[in-house]
Amino acid sequence: MDFAFNDEQRLFAETLRQYARSKLKPEYQTWDSGTPYPREKLRELASMGITGLRVPEAYGGAQASYVTAGIAAEELARGDYNTTLFLQLGAMCADIVARHGSEAIRQEWLPKLAGGERLLALGLTEPGAGSDAAAIKTSARREGDYYVIQGEKASITFAGSADGCILFARTSGAERGSRGISALLVPLDVPEVSRQVYRSAGEKLTRRGSLIFDGARVPADHLLGAEGTGLAQALGGFDYNRALIALACLGAAQESLDETVEYAKQRSTFGKPLAEREGVSFQIAEHLTLVAGARLLAYQCLALCDRGERHSKEGAMAKWLGPKVAVDAIHACIILHGWMGYSDELPYVQRLRDVIGLEIGDGTPEIMKGIIARETFGRSYMIYK
Ligand SMILES: Cc1cc2nc3c(=O)[nH]c(=O)nc-3n(C[C@H](O)[C@H](O)[C@H](O)COP(=O)(O)OP(=O)(O)OC[C@H]3O[C@@H](n4cnc5c(N)ncnc54)[C@H](O)[C@@H]3O)c2cc1C
């Protein structure tokens, strides 16, 4: 068992940590206003290799390992947790397009995704179907050389800013269940698509919202993979993305703890620094331990994924534990900073609001425990098959 990153990964981590602290962190709170994230900032992330991490080299990307993507999630989150969403969606969408897109679609989208010129959203959830993804109703009806899309996708990260969406829609009736769902790459700047950005409690940089399709026509060659394979494509990506989510949450938590350690050395009460009080230092010691444990679980998932081994259980464990441990740690950092912790002058309340979003997104704690139980007891016992 080897717990060390290789030299290239270590250098990548150091470079990103420096970039996150010097460039992203000073602006983190600025984007909490919901102002659209400028495209030149996205191109800057692209120049750091973030948007092209999972794009194949032949299309201008780095084709990096999943462990390397995990390093990027963890380090970026130290500066601006929300920028990790470009990495997460970038990786999942690039993997789907590279594996299931036609050559024309790959040529059209992958180099621009890697270069930060285009942004893709992933549209699965609907107003009436989230955890139970097989219950979606949005339809893609074949008409000659086109599919015609009708329906609403809800709670979609980047709904307000994406150029296209990997859309999961029914190409056959509900009686086919998950086998009636297909994936299509749908350009969004057409009159038959409207967008509604939510007043979200956090992750405002991502302009999460609804995408409403009212008869949008998509060329038939924009189908990704065979009809009926859409949900399997999405679920394959979710398994590793759950570890990326965990590492993003844990990166934000680790930065908060590191800052709190420094604060505890400087702030004195009753004639002594807080750091000399075991009531404070033991709390920090506990959170550091839990963050370190959850982090290892997430990297274990990504290492399994890189080796081509099954990693659904580890992904679900990481996704349940990572955000939970991060929320608890950041909450403690708020309290340990006293009244200043509970102000917008410091980043902790925003970090807490931001991290809570991905306790829900990509699968709730209940659904994660359902997957862990399914992988343990066997499929026939479980609700989430
Ligand atoms: C920040 C954020 C970003 C998101 N980004 C995207 C995106 O980019 N694309 C996308 O498609 N979706 C996205 N989502 C949607 C997300 O995937 C769904 O919110 C999630 O899957 C849960 O679905 P739901 O909200 O409909 O809750 P529901 O499925 O209605 O569940 C409600 C509650 O009931 C619990 N529950 C449900 N079923 C069971 C059960 N069988 N047993 C026990 N408890 C159960 C759930 O855990 C939850 O607590 C995002 C959500 C958030 C918050």
Structural features, described:
By secondary structure, the protein is α+β, with helices and mostly antiparallel strands. The chain has three domains: 7-114, Orthogonal Bundle (Butyryl-Coa Dehydrogenase, subunit A, domain 1), CATH 1.10.540.10; 120-228, Butyryl-CoA Dehydrogenase, subunit A, domain 2 (Beta Barrel), CATH 2.40.110.10; 231-381, Butyryl-CoA Dehydrogenase, subunit A, domain 3. 50% of the residues lie in helices and 15% in strands. It is built from eleven helices and ten strands. The protein has helices at residues 7-24, 39-47, 66-80, 84-100, 103-114, 230-266, 278-306, 312-336, 338-341, 348-360, 365-377; strands at residues 120-123, 139-143, 146-156, 164-170, 181-187, 193-197, 209-219, 223-224, 268-269, 272-273. The strands form three sheets. The chain has a four-stranded mixed beta sheet, with helices on one face. A four-stranded antiparallel beta sheet has the order 2-3-7-6, with no helix packed on it. Strands 9-10 form a two-stranded antiparallel sheet. The chain is globular and about 80 Å long. It starts with 6 loop residues before the first helix and ends in an 8-residue tail after the last helix. The model has no long low-confidence stretch (mean pLDDT 96). Bound molecules: flavin-adenine dinucleotide.
